[in-house]
Amino acid sequence: MAVGIGTEQVTGGVPRPDAALPGMAPRRQRALRLPRSPKIIAGLAMLAFFVLLSVIGPLVAPYSPDQIFANSPVPLPPSAAHWLGTTNLQQDVFSQLLVGGGDMLLVAFIAGVIATALSVVMGVTAGYLGGLADDLLSMLANIFLVMPALPLLVILFGFLGKSGSNDLFLIGFIISVTGWAWGARVLRAQTLTLRNRDYIDSAKIIGERRSRIIFSEVLPNLTPIVASSFLFTVLYAVGTYTAMAFLGLVNPNWSWGGMLYYAQGANAELTGYWWWFIPPGLAVALLGTSLVLLNFGIDEFINPRLRAAGLSRRSARRQARALRSQQFALTPVVRTQQIHAEEGQA
């Protein structure tokens, strides 16, 4: 027997599963996607800009970064010929800025990949195996966590010497050695919460190999954390490579840190040559900001509370209006003043 109630159809006194309440749209299957947050959009846009700049920068640079122009005892301010002025050697600052981002991004990417691989291997293995393996790997990670990174990098780059200071892969590897421990600790903690889940026990019961359980069952559930660890390590590598170039421990090679190194050597910040050190410093800051915004987006994706807060306010308001517009068959509540008026008439 079918009874009509408004726009719903009830069959046998039980509402149909596909029936929708009045004022509500039919339920649709949602696709998995990152939060549509302004932070995500801004971070991706800024990072894409810097990646594009590193690729086409050397091609569109108006001059060679080491080309020397008219003889002048002081750096020239920005002009039509030199958009960001010149250095004390009359080299074009704008060309150096366009060329200097490629090596930094390459070193940061190499360091991020190596450090993330080390953190995944160490952290997931320690968390899944437990016992003595967990104790040894955790002790190794703790040693690298408490070890001061900057003095260690100074020593390592000092042994590297000027002969190998242009090897970008070696520089990225040295930076990754000091940047993997934090991600390993986080992954270990999350693996400890996953290794006793029912689907892990089922995989053990059916006889799956330990390596397959780690890479097929545990690791896919840690993908957002791995991505967050990668972004954090890339951000760490950007700051570290800039600091090493600023200290003169690696060949500046017209990187943004190298521009700051030469500007500091000429006392540009004291003599007021702002066009020499502000553009590279601002570029490093904006690149770091883009990575931080993306990392915040990954955190929103991991944490349900942050994900709810990171959704667009427009979508939240639209959902609130939809809930308010729903009309249920409830008995209206009589106002208190109306009740008192009726009692007075009686």
Q: How many individual helices?
A: 16
Order of helices and strands: EEEHHHHHHHHHHHHHHHH
Distance between the termini: 47 Å
Radius of gyration: 30 Å
State the CATH superfamily name of the domain at 101-287: MetI-like
Structural account:
- By secondary structure, the chain is mostly helical.
- It has a domain at 101-287: MetI-like fold.
- Helices cover 65% and strands 3% of the residues.
- The protein is built from 16 helices and three strands.
- Strands 1-2-3 form a three-stranded antiparallel β-sheet, with no helix packed on it.
- Helix 3 packs antiparallel against helix 4, helix 3 packs parallel to helix 6 and helix 8 packs antiparallel against helix 9.
- It is globular and about 80 Å long.
Q: What keywords describe this structure?
A:
346 residues, mainly alpha, MetI-like fold, three-stranded antiparallel beta sheet, 16 helices, globular, disordered N terminus
